[in-house]
């Protein structure tokens, strides 16, 4: 059951006690907005009579029993003999509550011993709201049933814990702040935000009616002139806008002041002059109950700015610092930003009211230039004179030989006061311009252009020979040899070079580029500098045979040098013991004798080899008939390559790459190597060399065939 308590006197609180005075309602109540979600007290002849007539026992004044904190723990109390009483004889306890204008609160009172009655008083002792059964039979809630109230001012409130009828017993009182109602979203004057009212937003209660509401806050200054516009963008929303002052002494609201259903403060045109300095709250809700939809909220400023000195300003090539003043007739917010990389705002990037912006201009090492800053919405121009222009020129050449090759395609990057970049041309020459005062670092770089013609098994052989001190290397050759980058040259470097030459991945630097010097530094470049050369080193090319036009070797017939091989042939014995050239396919009489899983070996025979330290081979085969033996695709034991290191890459279908190198040269006649295949099925099988490179010099496309049954390995693979 619900009942109302209406109080004629105003309570004045002094030193924590209640003193009863007879006077009219104060001006604070009169200025309270109808959308404050607080109902004003009304005069009535309540059965309880006037507050304090019953008073405390033996005429003692009623002191607050404690303080209730919004969001704090519930307070337990008890009503009974000795408490303060209303005229109707019911007992009550009084609590203080400190609130802020615009704060959203619910107050609840529960009890199993009595029928709870809850009263909210303002600081003058007048009733703002009261409730009997808003939280269900016997329990009270402000506001009734659901939603929150919005406190109208910053200061002290009082909560009366009472009962509907004269009764004694325990109770609990708590003041809460629902999470969806607790936060104000910051907004800056001059900005516009877009959002939407949804069913998950805070619900404010006004005369028992619920409105979905979003809350925004901004810092304002007394005298600042602003306008506030709220427009619906979707849904069934009829926007309603409320502006609350920091102290709560004034509330401004609007429904259709922006035309149509749009809200505007002030209505129509013009600007609203803020009455005080502090944090203001904007409530975005609807004219109708529980409306939802999208909206746009804008705060516009009545701002006029002037900048001094006037634009444009001119600086010399050395640059410098400057400042300008902002003057405005209102307390308006502004920002300052640079629109050019060489102009920097050093202080005053934002402000409010009159202010100063400081900036710096970098030294100019190029031609004359112009740039701008945007300050308080206006464009401020800066011009700068041309600087002293310098250049850097040089040539990039390969490290090897008495007449080193030019290295094209090398990137040259200079970082410093002004970044400059370029690349070397076909003759290895480069020229960079646009420098000036200030330090620079020039760094060369290059990618690609590394091939197996330049990095081969002979490079691995050379590294291996050096590692056991059979030969000497120049300083640059030692750099090219240390592909593991560990400061030493060992068999591991040779192994990584050989792996790279057959297309296997490595963890080292093989195939990358280094330069001597690695960088060149300059304290200033205000003149033309020439002879700024670099030496390029391809890591892994220890023999130094790189050329800028190098590519993977294409087969060609070439005569042999006397130092390498007098003759090279690929032979197999016939059944009568004689030998003849091998054809590149199975002989009919032999093919029928082959069976699946049979292992066959193909010898590579050389005649008159001299000083043979390495060879690189690319072999193609019929993958439908043959496949390299998994555990040993080649055999060196018993051949001239017995003491060579062999690296094989058989990952490509129908192709096998071989790199072989040693530290002791091969001399004489014999089988250089044996290729080992497993027969997959009987039939014609072709084996051929795409290329064979001996010591990086002899390049041939030899003929190769299949040995007869006399050389067959009868073992089968498991």
CATH topology of the largest domain: Jelly Rolls
CATH architecture label name of the largest domain = Sandwich
Q: What number of structural domains do the residues give?
A: 5
Estimate percent helicity: under 10%
**Which outline best applies?**
elongated
Mind telling me the CATH class of the largest domain? Mainly Beta
Q: Spans with pLDDT under 50 lasting ≥5 residues?
A: 1-34, 39-60, 550-593, 700-718
Number of strands: 53
Question: Would you kindly provide a written description of the structure presented here, covering whatever features stand out?
Answer:
Helices cover 5% and strands 44% of the residues. By secondary structure, it is mostly beta strands. The protein has 5 domains: 10-179, Jelly Rolls, CATH 2.60.120.380; 183-301, Jelly Rolls; 305-384, Sandwich (Immunoglobulin-like); 457-538, Orthogonal Bundle (Type 1 dockerin domain); 565-716, Immunoglobulin-like (Sandwich). Strand 51 (687-694) and strand 52 (698-700) form a beta hairpin. The chain is elongated and about 130 Å long. The N and C termini lie far apart (97 Å).
Layout: helices, strands, pairs:
Layout: E1 10-14, E2 17-21, H1 27-30, E3 66-67, E4 75-79, E5 84-85, E6 91-99, E7 104-110, E8 116-121, E9 127-131, E10 140-142, E11 149-150, E12 155-163, E13 169-176, E14 185-186, E15 192-197, E16 202-206, E17 209-220, E18 225-232, E19 239-244, E20 251-254, E21 263-265, E22 272-273, E23 278-286, E24 293-301, E25 305-308, E26 313-315, E27 320-328, E28 333-338, E29 343-347, E30 350-352, E31 355-361, E32 369-375, E33 378-384, E34 390-398, E35 411-416, E36 420-423, E37 429-435, E38 440-445, H2 457-467, H3 475-481, H4 491-501, E39 513-516, E40 520-522, E41 528-529, E42 534-538, E43 565-569, E44 571-573, E45 579-581, H5 588-591, E46 598-621, E47 626-628, E48 634-635, E49 645-649, E50 655-679, E51 687-694, E52 698-700, E53 713-716
Parallel strand pairs: 3-6, 14-17, 26-33, 34-41, 34-42
Antiparallel strand pairs: 1-2, 4-13, 5-6, 6-12, 7-10, 7-11, 7-13, 8-9, 8-12, 15-24, 16-17, 17-23, 18-21, 18-22, 18-24, 19-20, 19-23, 25-27, 27-31, 28-30, 28-32, 29-31, 32-33, 34-37, 35-36, 35-38, 38-40, 39-42, 43-46, 44-45, 46-50, 46-51, 46-53, 47-50, 48-50, 49-50, 51-52
């Amino acid at each position: 059951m619900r009942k109302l308590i209406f109080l004629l006197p105003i309570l004045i609180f002094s030193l924590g006690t209640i003193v009863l005075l007879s006077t009219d309602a104060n001006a604070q109540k009169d200025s309270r907005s109808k959308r404050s979600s607080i109902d004003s007290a009304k005069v009535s002849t309540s059965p309880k009579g006037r507050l304090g007539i019953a008073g405390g026992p033996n005429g003692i004044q009623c002191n607050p029993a404690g303080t209730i904190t919004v969001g704090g723990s519930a307070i337990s109390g008890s009503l009974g003999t000795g408490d303060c009483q209303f005229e109707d004889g019911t007992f009550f306890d009084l609590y203080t509550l400190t609130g802020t204008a615009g704060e959203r609160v619910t107050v609840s009172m529960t009890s199993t011993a009595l029928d709870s009655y809850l009263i909210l008083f303002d600081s003058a002792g007048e009733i703002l709201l009261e409730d009997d059964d808003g939280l269900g039979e016997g329990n009270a809630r402000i506001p009734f049933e659901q939603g929150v109230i919005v406190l109208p001012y910053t200061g002290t409130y009082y909560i009366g814990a009472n009962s509907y009828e004269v009764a004694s017993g325990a109770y609990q009182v708590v003041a809460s702040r629902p999470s969806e109602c607790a936060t104000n979203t910051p907004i800056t004057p001059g900005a516009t935000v877009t959002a939407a009212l949804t069913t998950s937003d805070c619900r404010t209660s006004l005369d028992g009616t619920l409105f979905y509401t979003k809350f925004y806050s901004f810092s304002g200054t007394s005298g600042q002139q602003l306008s506030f516009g709220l427009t619906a963008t979707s849904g069934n929303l009829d926007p309603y806008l409320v502006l609350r002052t920091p102290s709560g002494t004034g509330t401004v609201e609007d429904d259709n002041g922006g035309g149509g259903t749009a809200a505007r403060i002030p209505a129509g045109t013009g600007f609203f002059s803020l009455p005080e300095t502090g944090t203001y709250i904007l409530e975005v809700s609807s004219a109708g109950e529980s409306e939802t939809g999208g909206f746009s909220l804008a705060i516009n400023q009545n701002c006029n700015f002037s900048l001094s000195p006037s634009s444009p300003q001119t600086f010399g090539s050395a640059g410098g610092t400057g400042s300008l003043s902002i003057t405005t007739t209102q307390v308006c917010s502004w920002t300052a930003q640079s629109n050019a990389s060489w102009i920097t705002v050093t202080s005053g990037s934002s402000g409010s009211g009159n202010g100063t912006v400081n900036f710096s201009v970098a030294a100019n090492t190029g031609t004359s230039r112009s740039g701008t800053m945007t300050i308080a919405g206006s464009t401020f121009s800066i011009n700068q004179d041309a600087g002293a222009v310098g250049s850097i020129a040089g040539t990039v050449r390969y490290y090897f030989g008495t007449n080193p090759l030019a290295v094209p395609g090398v990137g040259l990057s200079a970082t410093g006061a002004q970044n400059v970049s370029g690349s070397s041309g076909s003759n290895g020459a480069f020229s960079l311009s646009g420098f000036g005062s200030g330090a620079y670092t020039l760094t060369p770089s290059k990618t690609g252009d590394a091939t197996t013609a330049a990095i081969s098994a002979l490079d691995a052989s050379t590294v291996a020979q050096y590692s056991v001190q059979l030969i000497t290397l120049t300083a640059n050759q030692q750099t090219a040899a240390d592909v593991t980058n560990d400061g030493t040259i060992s068999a591991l470097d040779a192994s990584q070079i050989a792996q790279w030459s057959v297309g296997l991945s490595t963890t080292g630097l093989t195939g990358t580029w280094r330069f001597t010097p690695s960088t060149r530094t300059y304290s200033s470049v205000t003149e033309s500098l020439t002879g700024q050369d670099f030496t390029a080193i391809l890591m892994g090319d220890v023999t130094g045979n790189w050329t800028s036009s190098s590519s993977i070797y294409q087969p060609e017939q070439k005569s042999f040098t006397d130092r390498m091989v007098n003759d090279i042939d690929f032979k197999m014995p016939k059944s009568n013991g004689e030998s003849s050239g091998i054809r590149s396919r199975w002989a009919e009489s032999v093919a029928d004798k082959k069976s699946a899983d049979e292992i066959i070996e193909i010898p590579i025979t050389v005649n008159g080899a001299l000083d043979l330290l390495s060879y690189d081979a690319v072999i193609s085969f019929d993958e439908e008939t043959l496949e390299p033996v998994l555990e040993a695709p080649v055999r060196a034991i018993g051949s001239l390559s017995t003491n060579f290191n062999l690296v094989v890459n058989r990952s490509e279908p129908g192709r096998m790459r071989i790199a072989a190198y040693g530290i002791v040269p091969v001399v004489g006649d014999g089988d250089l190597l044996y290729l080992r295949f497993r027969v997959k099925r009987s039939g014609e099988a072709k084996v051929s060399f795409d290329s064979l490179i001996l010591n990086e010099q002899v390049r041939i496309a030899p003929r190769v065939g299949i040995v007869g049954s006399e050389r067959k390995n009868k073992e089968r693979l498991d």
